[in-house]
Structure formats: structure tokens, C-alpha cells
Amino acid sequence: MRLRELLVYSEISIQCHDNPDPDTIASGFALYCYYKQLGKKVRLIYSGDRKITKPNIIMMIEVLKIPLEYVPELKKVTGLLITVDCQYGAGNVTRIESDSVAIIDHHIRETSIVTKQEIRSELASSATLVWDMLCCEEFDVNQYIEISTALYYGLFTDSSAFTELRHALDKDMRDSLKYDPILLRKLKNSIITLKELEIAGMALIRSSYNKANRCVMVKAQECDPNILGLISDFALQVDCVNVVIVYTETIQGIKYSVRSCVKDIRANELAVFLSQDIGNGGGHRDKGAGFISRNCYELYYSHLNADEYFLTKLTKYYQNYDLIYCNRYVLPDLAMQPYKRLPVSKGCIDLESIIPKGVPFVIRCQKEDIICTTSAQRILLVESEGQVEIIKEEEFKKKYDIKPQAYNIPLNYFPRIKISESEQFIYLKNYTRECIEKTERVVWARALHKDIKLFKDEEDEYYKLGKIGDYLVVCQDREEFMYISTKDHFERHYKEIEE
Ligand SMILES: [Mn+2]
After folding, report:
1. 279 C-alpha to center of ligand 1: Å?
2. 253 in helix, strand or coil?
3. Pairing label, strands 321-325, 451-455
4. How far is ligand 1, taken at its centre, from the CA of residue 122, in Å?
5. 288 Cα to the center of ligand 1, angstroms
């Protein structure tokens, strides 16, 4: 979806999630300014049962002059409603009726009912997403220091002070935004009130430790959900703790925050699991959060108190998957069948043709920055999901045939090259041609009957999650020799070998 598509509406309400954080406010504010300067009638609003009390957020709104309105009574708007940093219909945003709805968000997709949506869960913040969408419309946020400072702060808070940037676009935005450093310093040091300091302290005294799962559970007095996050960040630093769940109970239900510092548990996946069928959860690898609705909870779990409930679910979560380390996998696996993998097409670029010899450069792709020292006789390969590989020209000629056409596939981040010295970007899309593998490969594969988390080896930090029904594939002549293929992908690209 593009921002300009929404210009058909003359009235636009932009809704932040309840208990707004800097990211939702910054993203909403940037959208507000964009549509306002195009002459639209715009409102920036939020709802929910509590008004903003966090000192840093109040300061952000005041200093940057953000026209955010609290509208707890509002039931309906005319024109278009955009929910930002949240998804219409989800538990963390009060439902307001509207003729048309759009979603701009970076959490895991929860709804497909709303067709106008731009959801990119690989980004660290919604601010990044909005920034990218504004760039596409050639709206330069650096012309407006309030907007650029807000976006910068949105990413800052959603990425734990830039320590959790994983996507290239997050880094692109951080590197290019102008911001007000004095304000930023003040904001960083006004996170909680004295009252909240006390709530956090009392909660920590009553924490309970579960040795088997190396998990700490903390129940806090009713408070702003951001405080749950602070408590859990703190508790995670305990040496024998791998997972933290901090929760608070309200009349509407249970709000919780999840943290993990171990590679085989992703906080967002655990957060989803904890509220499965009775609420919703989400987040990122190390940090997640969720909400359980009181009514649903009473229906299924009224015999458990919240502590018991979380412990039961946590134990189930651990039993729900198998860990597989590729380097320790024993072959032959008798459950596997041989298949033919049809030749794959990729994008290829002769690096020497675009970068002078001896100039150091960085290849930025969706997952990582790769630092390179030479372009001599190297070919860059781009795969269908945006991964890159650099191989020698010789090897390339042996394995691939070049096609005449450009490699034109929709990627949400097409790899770019940054020349280290000049900071100049080269957009590779314009230089990439299609190539196709010369030979078919034989692989072994089986369908999964239980979820798996697949690691390359003990050092590997990121697992690939395989769900029931997906295929586990072994391909011995490839560096990454085990991988997971979704059922749909597998059926399209692999053929069974008849014996
Ligand atoms: Mn966010």
C-alpha cells in the first residue's frame, strides 16, 4: 500500500494504540503532517481506559507540539481511519467504527479482514515503516525537525536504544534522520514517576522463580504497561534467569510482558502462545507483550490463578517443539524421501562493473551488513527472499546461466551497496540480471509432524521455525544443507522421484 492511495479520502483520523508509546505517536504524527500539508482534514487520536501519564511521553508531545487528542468516548469517525503501530480489531487498540479502515504496523500480522494494510513485522519500529513510506512519496522529513526527531525517538525506544536494529531500513533511517540531541537526552531520563518506581520495587520483592524453566514470574500492581516492560528488563539481568513474565491484572483482563535472553525461545512467539485463543500477543525476538481477556480466561481457566496459568502454559510451550542442530543431524533419516528440486532463478550482478577495484564497500541486505574489500572477479547473487551470496566468477560460470532479462521480483528491501568512504548508495535493483541454475538437485525431505526449531550449529543465534505440515529438507551439495520449506513452496518447487 502507498500513502498516496489514501489521498482519495478528504477526512482522515489516525489512531495510535491505547497506552500510546513514542513509536505509535511518532508514526501517527508523521502521517498527520503528511496528510495535513496536502490539505486533508486530519485528526491524531488515541482511546482506551487511561490517559497518558508517562513523563517522557508528555514531554515528547509538548516539546514537539504533537496534536494528539485523547478520545475515550469516541465511537465512530467519518472518512478513513488509520490505525498505526497496531492493527484494527486487535486487543491493544479500542475499536472505533469507520466506513474505511487502513493499517500501518510492524507487529506480526493478526488480521487479513482489512485489505488496506502495510504490515512489515521485520522492522524494529513503525516509525521506520512510516519513514520509508514517506520517502516513497518524496516527502523529506528532515525539512521538519519535529517530525524527524519524533521518528528518531520512536525507533530509539522500540529498539532498546538502537541495540535491536536488525533490518537494513532501520539503520538507513537512523543514519539519515536529523534530530534534536538536547531533547533526546532529556527524554531518555524521564521514563518513570516516583510512584512507578515504588510499584516496580514492590513487584520485584514478590517475584517467584521457576528453576526447571529458568523463568521468573512477577505480579505487579495495576500500572502502565510500559512499567511491566521495565520490570521485566531488569529481572532478565539476573544470572540464572532466561525468561521473564511480568503481569498485572485489571478488570478487563491480564496484561503481560515477556522477555527472553536465550536463543531457543523468542519472546514474541511465547507471548503469542501465552494468550492463544483467549487474547493476543506479539512483539520481537527478545521482547514481547500480550493481553488476556478476563471473560475468556474465566471461561476456560477459572480453576487456575494467573501464576499457575502462566506456569502451565510455559511448561507446555517447552514441550511443544523439538530442537534440531543441522551439524549434529544423523543421516540417513529413514523417514525422508528423495525429491528433485527444480532449477532456481536468482539475481546476479558483476561487482566489478559497478565498483572500482580496491574500493571498500558494504553490502546492506535485509538481515545484515556485509563488509567487502574487493570487487575483483566477484559475482553477487540475490535470492528470492533478499538474501545475498558472493561467489567467484569462475564458480558462477560453472553453476549458472545468465538470462537476458532484469531480475524483477518484489522485495521489501532490495540489497544496496554503500561505498564506505563516500557514504554513497548504489541501488542494485537497476543492475541485477536474472540467472538460473544449470542443474537440478536431488534432496531428501519429510513433512513435519511436530514443530521444530532448526539451528545451523551451537553457535547459531537465529533458528528457523518449522510448523506442522512444513517440510524439512536436506540438500547435501549446498552450504546451508538443511532448511525448512513451507508446504506450498515445497509442492511448487520439488517433485517426487519415482523409484
Ligand atoms: Mn512499535
Report:
1. 19
2. strand
3. parallel
4. 11
5. 11
Domains of the chain: residue spans and CATH: 3-188 (3.90.1640.10), 194-318 (3.10.310.30), 324-340+440-496 (no CATH), 344-437 (no CATH)
- What is the distance in A from the centroid of ligand 1 to the CA of 421? 33
* E strands, 303-374, in order: 321-325, 337-341, 345-350, 361-364, 369-372
Q: Is residue 159 within 8 Å of residue 128, measured between CB atoms?
A: no
- Å from CA of 104 to ligand 1 middle: 10
317 Cα: distance to centroid of ligand 1 (angstroms): 25
C-alpha cell of residue 111: 488480521
CA–centroid distance, 158 to ligand 1, in Å, is 6
Give the pLDDT confidence score for residue 208 in this predicted structure: 92
299/293 Cα distance (integer angstroms) = 10
Distance 54 CA to ligand 1 centre (A): 16
Q: Helices 145-158 and 22-37 meet at what angle, rounded to 10? A: 150
Q: pLDDT value at position 479?
A: 57
- 370 φ, ψ to 5°? -115, 120
* H-only helix segments in 86-144: 126-136
User: How far away, in angstroms, is 448 Cα from ligand 1 center?
Assistant: 33
Centroid of ligand 1 to alpha carbon of 27 (angstroms): 9
Residue 202 grid cell = 514492590
> Ligand 1 (ion): which residues have CB within 5 A?
23, 85, 126, 158
pLDDT value at residue 191: 83
Which residue type sits at 175?
D
- The 3 state secondary structure assigned to 64-95 is CCCCEEECCCCCEEEEEEEEECCCCCCCCCCC
In this prediction, residue 441 carries a pLDDT of: 82
Question: Can you give the pLDDT at residue 460?
Answer: 84
pLDDT of amino acid 224: 78
Check residue 478 and give its pLDDT: 60
The pLDDT of residue 188: 87
163 CA distance to ligand 1 middle (Å): 15
Whole-model pTM: value is 0.66
Residue 32 Cα to ligand 1 middle (Å): 17
pLDDT < 70 stretches in the chain: 164, 166, 477-480, 499
**Residue appearing with cell numbers 525507533:** 155
Rounded distance between C-alpha atoms, residue 313 and residue 308, angstroms: 9
- The gap between the terminal CA atoms of the chain, to the nearest Å, is 48
With contact defined as beta carbons under 8 Å apart, do 100 and 80 qualify?
Answer: yes
